[in-house]
């Protein structure tokens, strides 16, 4: 797909991205990197205010929020996600210094301090005018991509800096080798552990887990002019990565993509099967061991600690099954180096044909296509790094 030729521009973009090419193949001189996170509470008093931020505009009363809050309260009201982002920021800075690249790293969150608008204001105050953003989400969906792009636009408006600050965003990196390698290593090691324990491969299963989303949102993920199947680009991307891992490892073990962390009314269809339901069904089939791979997550935040390490592992144990949860990328050297490589693709204007991608779906777009990852409930809001619908 070629760039937009009818004069339609990309909001707050650098000059090479302004007309909306799918891949920007011209160099861009960036001043800084913006690490964009989800955010999380860091104490018991933060939990409900944080959840109000997450659910803003939905009219959910505090009594219902408290039903979710117990996950955080179990860990002292502290989500690990902010500390993980501090570690990732430090690791990125170390990798940039090692390579002799002078790009400061700023950090802003969607739902908790440090907020995105504060990071954008800091960038401007420090004299930066051209920013490349790294969102801590690898896949295409509203919450995983478009909402971050909306966050950047809202931050520019909140600070009054639209027109003064340019923000581009690296491509979705679900199939970049830096992201895939840590998962492949984890699956390899877990399967070896079960083999050492004498568990046959025929009685072992690999479950690739990711956050469930409404089926309607899944269908609207990715560009509108391409059919990705019943689960949209979101499901297709996860399946492609899982298949690549299992094929590359040459593992003679059955695998399945499963979902977790469902919320919302029971009348609304969400992606299935749930990881716990799948484990229970596998137990009925005589499976003795499950490898749980948190494929949809970049770090060990609450959905990993509670929904997988606590609930899914307990489900397996209650059925007499052994379970191993593999690591998330975190600050794995390959992941950190890969994120820097993604930034350098845009710095150097690397041609799309020369960019690494481990599946046939990539390399993904630098500039999101018109209508990508629509939120049907909220409609289209202004968003950077994408062509307006």
TrEMBL record:
Fe-coproporphyrin III binds at residues 79, 148. Its EC number is 4.99.1.9. GO terms for biological process: heme biosynthetic process. It is found in: Cytoplasm. It comes from the Bacteria. One of its GO terms (cellular component) is cytoplasm. InterPro entries: Ferrochelatase, Ferrochelatase_C, Ferrochelatase_N. Its main location: cytoplasm. Keywords: Cytoplasm, Heme biosynthesis, Iron, Lyase, Metal-binding, Porphyrin biosynthesis. It catalyses: Fe-coproporphyrin III + 2 H(+) = coproporphyrin III + Fe(2+). Pfam families: Ferrochelatase (PF00762). Pathway: Porphyrin-containing compound metabolism; protoheme biosynthesis. It is an enzyme of class 4 (lyase). Fe(2+) binds at residues 211, 303. GO terms for molecular function: ferrochelatase activity; metal ion binding. Belongs to the ferrochelatase family. Involved in coproporphyrin-dependent heme b biosynthesis. Catalyzes the insertion of ferrous iron into coproporphyrin III to form Fe-coproporphyrin III. This is Coproporphyrin III ferrochelatase.
